Amino acid sequence: MKYERFLKSPVFKRFVRKRLFDRASIVNRLLSAWFRTRGAVRPLPRSAEGLRNSELYKQWWYYGIELLPDVVTKSTFPQDFPLLPRMLLRNCDFSGGDCLDIGSVEGLIPVLMCRQGARRVVATNPHLYNYDKVQAVRKYYRAGFDFRQIGSLYDLSKKFGGSQGFDLINLSGVLYHVYSPMHVLAGLRPLLKKDGLMIVSTNVVNRLGFTMEFNERGKLQREGTTFWYPTIPLFDYLLRYFKLLPLDALYYPYGPGDQVRYTPDFESGYLCVVCRATDEPAFGSDDEWALDSIDDSYETILLWDQERLSRQAKSVSSYRVPIDPSLLSPENRSLDLYKMVAQTPPVVKAERSQDSHYLHLADRI
After folding, report:
1. Whole-number Å distance between alpha carbons of 300 and 189
2. pLDDT value at position 30?
3. Could you tell me the end-to-end alpha-carbon distance of the chain, in angstroms, rounded to an integer?
4. Cβ of 322: how many Cβ atoms within 10 Å?
5. Contact 271, 337 (CB under 8 A)
6. What stretches of the chain adopt beta strand conformation (E)?
7. What is the pLDDT of residue 93?
8. Quick count: other Cβ atoms within 10 Å of Cβ 356?
9. Is 168 within the bounds of a domain?
10. Would 81 be classed as within a structural domain?
11. How far apart are CA 80 and CA 42, in angstroms?
12. What is the CATH number of the domain that holds 336?
């Protein structure tokens, strides 16, 4: 009884918050260790018939992944539904570098990061519900990526301790699933090396203004984990606020045929952006509010570890595609996202399998 009272005491709670973030993290660490051991010894089906009859294959799969020749899991997406982060990833040169993928589900992007020359790849999911599938994909593809169960997506720089830095970070399909997109960006940005690349993708509203639509009554998507759709100018502004310069982007508009994502109230879609880390906010000199906010706000002090950001090593990554001069932002250093969406053709479907949510054993990109 004495121990139980101590575990519930304010003293112990303060200690846990300071040292281990929360009590759940202790359980998650134990579960992660147990799953690693369990996954390491569990044999995988080696025949097509055995795989098709296995619980692994019959589970729900986000991606369509060929685990054995001609045995492909059933994706939640049609075969011509484009995977924009994958399409931009192939233009990133990160050979010999370190990569981080946030929200890997079964691990399609980490496999491609490994195959495109990364030295180290870390796959992540908030929970362990996909861990068996991640392990299976890693083994079937002989991909040497690591896996981290990260819990809440806030304070990510604290969860990756020490002086770790990454040459490329993929943050796709995440920001509309969290209460606060700015918290996620603030926690993740210090993990990106100087001049490193970050792919950021989210649902957006295609209109002018600096607002976010909230998913009240499921007007944006019926599933219960979607919250925010920023306007394209606001998304552009937030990237620059966190010292990320847009270099390239792809846009997929949601049409009436999409019963999951389409809304008749306004044009919405999925915007995927490749950004380069910069030392200074990517604003004009006349935006004194943003500069003051970044320097002095309590949120910056508490949530955005700029000291760690300043200590990062220089990245080995680069981007192969130059910015179209006609799409430059007014400060002429980066891509204007609203102009890009307005003036370039959108992606309406995956023209080939390598642009889709399907991964095949022979795929390199």
Report:
1. 12
2. 54
3. 58
4. 8
5. yes
6. 64-68, 71-72, 92-93, 98-102, 120-125, 146-149, 166-172, 192-205, 212-214, 228-230, 244-253, 268-277, 318-319, 358-359
7. 98
8. 22
9. yes
10. yes
11. 34
12. 3.40.50.150
Q: What is the pTM of this model?
A: 0.89
Report long-range pairs for 299-305 (Cβ below 8 Å, ≥24 apart).
299/182, 299/186, 300/186, 303/154, 303/155, 303/183, 303/186, 303/187, 304/186, 304/187, 304/189, 304/190, 304/242, 305/157, 305/158, 305/190
- Return the sign of the alpha-carbon dihedral for residues 140, 146, 149, 155: negative
Q: What angle do CA 213, 293, 312 make, to 5 degrees?
A: 100
Provide the number of structural domains found in the chain: 1
Separation CA 136–CA 134 (nearest Å): 5
Query: How many C-beta atoms surround the C-beta of residue 343 within 10 A?
Result: 11
SS3 content of the chain, % helix, strand, coil (to 5): 35, 20, 40
CA dist., res. 232 & res. 212, Å (int): 9
Token digits for 322?
């130059």
Report whether 146 contacts 121 (CB < 8 A): yes
65 part of a folded domain: no
Structure tokens at 193: 């090396």
* Structural domain of 135: 77-359
Tell me, yes or no, whether 324 lies in a domain. Answer: yes
Nearest CA to 293 out of 243, 244, 241, 230 is that of 241
Question: Which residue type, as a one-letter code, is found at position 178?
Answer: V
pLDDT in tens, the chain (365 residues): 443 454 445 554 444 434 444 444 454 455 455 544 454 546 899 999 999 999 999 999 999 999 999 999 999 999 999 999 999 999 999 999 999 999 999 999 999 999 999 999 999 999 999 999 999 999 999 999 999 999 999 999 999 988 789 999 999 999 999 999 999 999 999 999 999 999 999 999 999 999 999 999 999 999 899 999 999 999 999 999 999 999 999 999 999 999 889 999 999 999 999 999 999 887 766 889 998 999 889 999 999 999 999 999 999 999 999 999 999 998 778 999 999 999 999 999 999 999 999 999 999 99
